[in-house]
TrEMBL record:
EC number: 6.1.1.14
Subcellular location(s) of the protein: Cell projection, Axon; Cytoplasm
Oligomer and partners: Homodimer.
Protein family: Belongs to the class-II aminoacyl-tRNA synthetase family.
InterPro entries: aa-tRNA-synt_IIb (IPR002314), aa-tRNA-synth_II (IPR006195), aa-tRNA-synth_II/BPL/LPL (IPR045864), Anticodon-bd (IPR004154), Anticodon-bd_dom_sf (IPR036621), Gly-tRNA_synthase/POLG2 (IPR027031), GlyRS-like_core (IPR033731), tRNA-synt_gly (IPR002315)
Catalysed reactions, as listed in the record: tRNA(Gly) + glycine + ATP = glycyl-tRNA(Gly) + AMP + diphosphate; 2 ATP + H(+) = P(1),P(4)-bis(5'-adenosyl) tetraphosphate + diphosphate
Protein name: Glycine--tRNA ligase
Protein's organism: Astrephomene gubernaculifera
SMART domains, alphabetized: WHEP-TRS
Length: 731
């Protein structure tokens, strides 16, 4: 793992191996499940819960005793004894958690829930994000980002822009969220962007059918009091794996068979019915033009394809990108930022000739070994992702082509850059039935969290579907032309519709039929010719899905040899689609840890590049000369583009660190008397190692800039400057 990380660092031209690896080791890692006595693990889980409750209770006692000590109502000895007891209880808790992990290979639900609750406390207290419209009781699925949340989101999108848009010379666009119906009709969203919903037959409350079924089946599998037969277990597992793909009637049958009831009330449920997830609106004062809030940013790119191709000098391949908000009226928003109704997407459409999906930069990522969870591994016994080089995955045909693999590699590197633990991310290939009929290959970039594996990025080879759909609806040519280096003599298929006959038979549909005939691929046209030559009829389907019977005499098809200068084709598209909020949440979970031996000291171990505030500046004590120097250093940091906080509250240094640790400030500068009277140096402390060095005040902003930009590592900086011993009250 450390080797992989170094490899990522080298490829990115970054220097992050030491600090990230050190921090990630502290992250919680869920390993594969070893089947050991279920009873035993249940018993340990119970003990963990009790130990957790005891720690929480004792933590409260310590806090109130500390407050009483300040008011002179408690003795120091009493507080010390309570702290000592808290430390002992934590040791017991940790031992129980370790015991559980050892026995099962998993992180216990208790510690997952405790971690989630503790993290939620920090995120809300420090206003990373909070429910929107809170004073009016909030609306599910909407969140406001507070100051650190805004800064992190901004940093993350900037890293994304640099990593993808800049690196690949992508063409960035920004399109409106309000979209006229015709666009989303062409893309298929008006007709098919649905989830199945069920309602409580008595109260009318709405639920997502697949979520209810999933929850119910999982509960059946976990019900220790009513164990299932091995056959039933197998049947339920198989059903669970395909819940997301069930058709309406199979969903209805499964809900009925397993007697799924409304949560909370236990009432009967309505049969499942499709619910369109788009927010509908009307455009203009008359209200007669239907519009929707876009459910994805991708369509804005497709509808601009012709102009983008022209902008790019008619050359392919090229990629366009868009960062912006998308809207989905989720039936049951849940899990904080993971499933919301308004979220920021960052999407790429890489347009390429379908005949050649090689990528000129594939070599640069070919030796990366992300965890790949291929179809074969998902169907196999172990059901576990395994590391594999992208080179091997392409050469063995596991990943369909180099371009798709290239983006998988670049996505993996992006995750590393922003602080997602590479040991807890994987790329899961869609099973055949999960993919749309037109898709060639799809992989989800998934990250492991306390909620399970979360899809953060979808990477899909969508063939030429999108451009063909928009071309069909808009009647605008969305093809590209590839000029051959030399003209060639080629056999081409010529399709000549007989307008008179078509008009007589199809009347108002004549135009649509003619266009469909002219749009046939060479293979389809030759199939049609074979049928007509045999005196048979041929069923022609238009882009809008209408079918027409083509009979002999309606069209003439022949093969001719011609001099051709190039080829016209509808480009294929490879689409990586990122959800910024989901990646942020996963990164929050992977960054969170507590200081060794003190459960109450939360640290958000953000990578400096995404950290909301890069440095804090403290005067050691409250003195005008020290405050003045601190202000000057803060100005230097600002001038270097480094967000910083200056703290002259006079709190103990330990207390100040505790506050800044919670918002993940990676570096702290302390100015003391030797900064003004001695050698002029200041103390620079690194958050995760808590190591301190002395740096000349004129160099400190430059050092932090280089650390934030990943041009150097803390280890390199620490080797260059003298170490400073931590003072007793520093931590
Ligand atoms: P999709 O178009 O459904 O493949 O979504 C693309 C990406 O958008 C996903 O990988 C997620 O990261 C993100 N995403 C989709 N739906 C939501 C949602 N309701 N809340 C937050 N992020 C979402």
């Amino acid at each position: 793992f450390a080797k992989l990380l170094r490899q990522a660092g080298t490829l990115l031209g970054l220097r992050f191996a030491a600090p990230v690896a050190g921090r990630l080791r502290r992250g919680l890692v869920c390993g594969g499940v070893q089947r050991t006595g279920a009873k035993m693990s249940e018993q340990i889980e119970k003990e963990i819960q009790e130990a957790q409750e005891a720690v929480t209770k004792q933590g409260d006692t310590v806090r109130s005793l500390k407050a009483s000590l300040k008011d002179g109502k408690a003795e120091k000895a009493e507080v010390d004894a309570a702290i000592q007891k808290l430390a002992e209880l934590k040791i017991t808790l940790e031992a129980k958690q370790k015991e559980f992990e050892k026995a099962t290979g998993k992180v216990s639900t208790q510690s997952k829930e405790a971690l989630r609750a503790a993290l939620a406390g920090v995120l809300e207290r420090r206003m990373f994000y909070i429910p929107s419209f809170k004073i009016y009781g909030s609306v599910a699925g909407f969140y406001d980002y507070g100051p650190p949340g805004c800064a992190i989101k901004q940093n993350m999108t900037q890293v994304w822009r640099n990593h993808f848009v800049l690196e690949e010379n992508m063409l960035e666009v920004e399109c409106p969220a309000v979209t006229p119906e015709v666009v989303l009709k062409a893309s298929g969203h008006v007709d098919r962007f649905t989830d199945f919903m069920v309602t409580d037959a008595v109260t009318g409350e709405c639920f997502r059918a697949d979520h209810l079924l999933e929850g119910h089946l999982e509960a059946l599998l976990e019900d220790k009091k009513n164990p299932l037969s091995p056959e039933k277990t197998k049947e339920i597992r198989e059903l669970l794996a395909g819940v997301g793909e069930l058709k309406q009637d199979s969903m209805a049958a499964a809900l009925k068979e397993y007697n799924v009831r409304a949560p909370g009330t236990g009432n009967e449920l309505s049969p499942p019915f499709p619910f369109n997830l788009m927010f509908k609106t009307s455009i203009g004062p008359k209200g007669d033009m239907v519009g929707y809030l876009r459910p994805e940013t991708a369509q804005g790119i497709f509808v601009n394809f012709r102009d983008l191709l022209y902008y790019n000098g008619g050359k392919l391949p090229f990629a366009a990108a868009q960062i912006g908000n998308s809207y989905r009226n989720e039936i049951s928003p849940r899990a904080g930022l993971l499933r919301v109704r308004e979220f920021t997407q960052a999407e790429i459409e890489h347009f390429v000739n379908g005949d050649d999906k090689s990528h000129p930069k594939f070599e640069s990522v070919a030796d990366l070994q992300p965890l790949l969870y291929s179809r074969a591994l998902q169907m196999g016994e172990e059901k576990k992702a395994a590391p594999m080089s992208l080179r091997e995955a392409v050469s063995r045909g596991i990943i369909a082509n180099e371009t798709l693999a290239y983006f998988i590699g670049r996505t993996w590197l992006f995750f590393c850059k922003v602080g997602v633990n590479p040991a807890r991310m994987r790329f899961r290939q869609h099973l055949q039935h999960e993919m749309a009929h037109y898709a060639t290959d799809c992989w989800d970039g998934e990250v492991e969290t306390t909620y399970g594996w979360v899809e953060c990025v979808g990477l899909a080879d969508r063939s030429a579907y999108d451009l063909k759909a928009h071309s069909g609806m808009s009647k605008i040519d969305l093809t590209a032309f590839e000029k051959f280096p030399e003209p060639r003599m080629e056999e081409v298929v010529r399709v000549a519709p007989n307008n008179k006959q078509l008009g007589a038979v199809f009347k108002k549909d004549q135009k649509a039929v003619k266009e469909a005939l002219e749009g046939l691929s060479d293979t389809a046209a030759m199939e049609l010719k074979a049928k007509l030559d045999a005196g048979e009829a041929y069923t022609l389907t238009t882009c809008e899905g209408q079918s027409f019977e083509i009979k002999p005499g309606m069209v003439e098809i022949k093969k001719v040899t011609e001099k051709v200068t190039g080829k016209t084709y509808t480009p294929s598209v490879i689409e990586p689609s990122f959800g910024i909020g989901r990646i942020m949440y996963c990164m929050f979970e992977h960054s969170y840890y507590t200081r060794e031996g003190d459960e109450t000291r939360a640290v958000m171990g953000f990578r400096p590049v995404v950290a909301p505030t890069k440095a804090t500046v403290f005067p050691l004590v409250q003195k005008p000369a020290l405050n003045e120097l601190a202000t000057r250093i803060s100005r230097d940091l600002t001038a270097a583009g480094l967000s910083n906080l200056i703290d002259t509250t006079g709190n103990t240094i330990g207390k100040r660190y505790a506050r800044t640790d919670e918002i993940g400030v990676p570096f702290a500068i302390t100015v003391d008397f030797s900064s003004i009277e001695g050698d002029g140096s200041v103390t620079l402390r690194e958050r995760d190692s808590m190591a301190q060095i002395r740096v000349p005040q004129s160099e400190v902003a430059g050092v932090i800039r280089a650390l934030v930009d990943d041009r150097t590592t803390w280890a390199e900086v620490a080797a260059k400057y003298p170490a400073q011993k931590a003072q007793a009250d520093d931590e």
